[in-house]
Amino acid sequence: MTPPPGSPADALATATERFPVQFARTRRFSLGVPRHFTVSPDGERVLFVRGTSGTDPVSRLWLYENGAERMLADPLAPDLTDEGQDEGPPAERARRERARETSSGVVSYAADGSARLVAFALGGTLWVVRTDGGAPRRIATAGPVVDPRPSPDGSLIAYVSGGALHTVRADGTPGRTLAWPDGEHVTYGLSDYVSQESIGRSRGYWWSPRGDALLVARVDTAGVRRRYISDPADPERPPRVVPYPAAGTPNAKVSLHLVRVSGERTDVRLPAAAGEDHPEGTWTDRTFEYVVSADWDSRGPLVSVQTRDQRSVHVLEVDERSGATRTVSRAHDPAWVALRPGTPLRLASGALTVAARPGGDTQGLDIGGTPTPPGLEVREVVGASGGRVYFTAGDEPTETHVWSYATDAPGEGFVRVSGAPGVHTASVGGPAVVLESRTPDGHGVTVLRNGVPVGRIAVLAEEPLVAPRPLALSLGGRELRSRLYLPSWHRPGDGPLPVLLSPYAGHGMQVVLKVRTWWVAVAQWFAEQGFAVLVTDGRGTPGRGEAWEKAVHGDRLTVVLEDQIDALRAAAALHPDLDLTRVAMRGWSFSGYLAAAAVLRHPEVFHAAIAGAPPADRRLYDTHWEERFLGHPDVFARDYTRNSLLAEAGALTRPLMLVHGLADDNVAVAHTLRFSAALLAAGRPHTVLPLSGAGHLVSREETASNLLLLERDFLRKSLGL
Length: 721
Fold this sequence. Notes:
Blueprint: H1 8-25, E1 35-39, E2 45-50, E3 58-65, E4 68-73, H2 81-84, H3 90-98, E5 104-105, E6 110-111, E7 117-122, E8 125-130, E9 137-139, E10 146-150, E11 156-161, E12 164-169, E13 177-179, E14 186-188, H4 193-199, E15 205-207, E16 213-220, E17 226-229, E18 240-243, E19 253-260, E20 265-267, E21 288-297, E22 300-307, E23 312-318, E24 325-332, E25 345-346, E26 352-356, E27 364-367, E28 370-371, E29 377-385, E30 388-394, E31 401-406, E32 414-416, E33 423-429, E34 432-439, E35 442-449, E36 452-457, E37 471-475, E38 480-485, E39 497-501, H5 518-528, E40 532-537, H6 546-549, H7 558-574, E41 578-588, H8 590-601, E42 608-612, H9 623-630, H10 637-643, E43 656-661, H11 670-681, E44 687-691, H12 701-719
Parallel strand pairs: 3-5, 39-40, 39-41, 41-42, 42-43, 43-44
Antiparallel strand pairs: 1-2, 2-3, 3-4, 6-7, 7-8, 8-9, 10-11, 11-12, 12-13, 14-16, 15-16, 16-19, 17-18, 19-20, 21-22, 22-23, 23-24, 25-26, 26-27, 27-28, 29-30, 30-31, 31-32, 33-34, 34-35, 35-36, 37-38, 38-40
Helix pairs in contact: 1-12
């Protein structure tokens, strides 16, 4: 029966029908959201990037000052338009892919120490603009520019071009080349693949506070195996070559160098390997293979390195004259040392803020000798200002708040800065805090000065056409945090609903949070199609202590699937309308892998699955990520086999759709092709949907919108809806 025009049911049907297009057009509701905040040291100015609406895919550079916003650079302005249409050199395109950047224009920038001069690149061209007035100025460079960064005093701008590190004066006067590639596969000033994708270090050089020298990463990928990413739909286009270190294969060689603007260079003498205090294991590799963080403050360069087996991390002070290093902090773990973003942070006194275990298995901080409270799970250190350290943490896994600790007034204790339930983060400078808050009511950005709100930065993202209506659940003996989404038109007792599990459930990410964001809206949209949608964060996800997060060490599937099944059964006991004879799972990346494993291993529970970009063969994934959980594949061959899906292909008895972007350089399409070949060899029917031109994040509007509809139709057919 068709609902009458203008009725609430008709409005809901129209909104539900239009949602996939809105979801794609807004790039998952990310357009119009301000990001990349920089607060000036005096707290007076805030820089950020954002489009002009929730459907504008071109990011502009903005300044918030004196309670008002002002656009500093518009890539569509007549004098910048031609430059802004190109994404720039290959190194810049790779940086955007690693950052999952979906917009164009000014997507990144860097400012001098006072946030007065800002540098950015458009189409490989260097531009600068001052926050105190004037139009952007184009600066001539030696070649296409990647990652330009002004010196702290604003007199020089460093940039990478052709793998070389250059400087140019801010007034346009030619500078000099500071480091030129000394090999075919060598770059200076850029981050390697693993550091960007799995470690979280996107930068490759750091200015000294005086602006007279830089700490520079040299990356040599000569020994790294190559992957060739092509688009079969465009066979005349040459493949893109990606140095990709798969598990068990050689990494890029990363070294650090102190380079003065006058041209002198000193090598940083990083330690080769951890000592006797390094935890032993079945596979032990003490080699310090990863440079996981670097910075340069008033006391000199500070670097942290991690062993290949990830069981030791050392924090090193670097002598800027000799390049000698001194270990000032050590961390060890029999599984892996977790890398806490924002650490190490050196205080004005010289004391360190580092990751610590303050009590039980809480993952917290040591702030200059003071531990964070037991039970307060720390996620990230966001900065320090005026003797106060700011970090994000929570004692309830569905919430993350901004906290501060005054090192010069320890009697104040730990102070929570954010208030409303949700997920909060911050950027700081002087007395100002830019508080970014995602709550069940939406997304907001508030500017605080001395703890008092003084203004807001506009969030222009569109509101989803489908209003999320999650039911918060804590299920089973492990109190699994879950959200259940039911059709808005369904009432208890109306009849059975097929169940769709739509988790992520993997390491490093939660989706059961007190927020209104894109995946919440998608879950509700599937509910409006006639499904009961259950989302659960189980063991292996962050926020619930070290033992919870490391329960997947050596086995990435068993306990994760167990938690999903336990949550499903517990939810059905609370809501009898959930039909356990019609259950499916959908997911992307890790959760795509999990969905495929669900129908292979538990066909008695799961009756269909959609697996998007599933890393089906764990040997194909990168070193730092995969070896964290499974070790070296030559040593733990059985673990890699039992955590991969290829050998289990013959067990498939349920409908399975495999979806993969052909240009994905994170989870290569080879995962799906090998899995599909194994299914075919076993005589198991399945569906494969290749996405031409798509990477790991599907951003093309027509593809993203129609993919939702195709998934819905596959699930309806498979579950008899």
